[in-house]
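Q: Protein A?
A:
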Amino acid sequence: MEPMVALNIAVLTVSDTRNEETDRSGQALVERLTNAGHTLAEKRIVPDDVYRIRAVVAEWIADSDVQVVITTGGTGFTGRDSTPEAISVLLDKRIEGFGERFRQLSGEEIGSSTIQSRCLGGLANATVVFCLPGSTGACRTGWDGILADQLDSRHKPCNFANLVIPGRGQHG
């Protein structure tokens, strides 16, 4: 079996209240991605502000060293939740199935409350971007149920890793 190609992944926590000590969701993502053999490119925390979120993600999308961006937080329906609005305008293509699959998995855990999740995924400048809810459980669900496989270059029949690995640019 071919070896997995490690990806450079940036993690952004969107929160008005969390800091590095209390950011369990961002920490869970960092732990999972590094345990899977990937590299943490950078981790930041920004307030739930559409322009600050967009600025950080746009910076990472423009950085050829960052292949994947994962955000956590700001995907709900409260007044300050603005991650989807910040990110969607940056995407060249949306991954419609990401949100659908996430809500399917999440529904098994939290029932009908999953319909309030506005998580999304997409491709921008050869970088895949995934926006997960802010709960630690949702981050585990998103990573374990979707991202672990889709960011593994060996996953068949297709994966997103091979779209962002230089020289591959294909699913398989």
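Q: Protein B?
A:
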Amino acid sequence: MPKLTEWAYPLAESLLAEPLPRRWKHCLGVAERARTIALVLDQDADLLEAAAVLHDIGYAPDLAKTGFHPLDGARYLRDVADADKRVINLVAHHSCAWMEAEARGMREELEGEFPRESAHLNDALCYCDMNTTPDGTSTNPIDRINEIAGRYGPDSLIGQFIRRAEPEILACTSRVLERVAAAKRQPM
């Protein structure tokens, strides 16, 4: 059975590399972070990496319908790409998307169409996204949140959302790091 990543990378590249090269670099970096925590994901490692490389496809000009990239990306994956349901749900709910959906008046729409995946996978994707700069390099969630707030402005919808989501983003990161540390302590 082919891996999800074998399908996901070319799809994400086709949607992002040319129109949004910086966003493509970010997605590659998020996928790289996913590989670094594979030890706590078991059989879901490929699933997380596929969702990681696809998580921001909703920014692609041809996909941006609502202006809310998690929803636009998930709808494309469901309606056009016939993607794995778990990948779709992770893309729809990545990095506390429900909070941004709420600020946009779209929470019922998001949650009505796409159920959330398990908490540990949502935590893992948030960890990967919030530990990756827009250029795809490694960072930490505090600097990433500050970068997002600075890029969009503190009074913008995104600036307000990211500050509201900050405690949950930090909690997600902490839970993932605890799982990684516990896994590393386990004898082989």
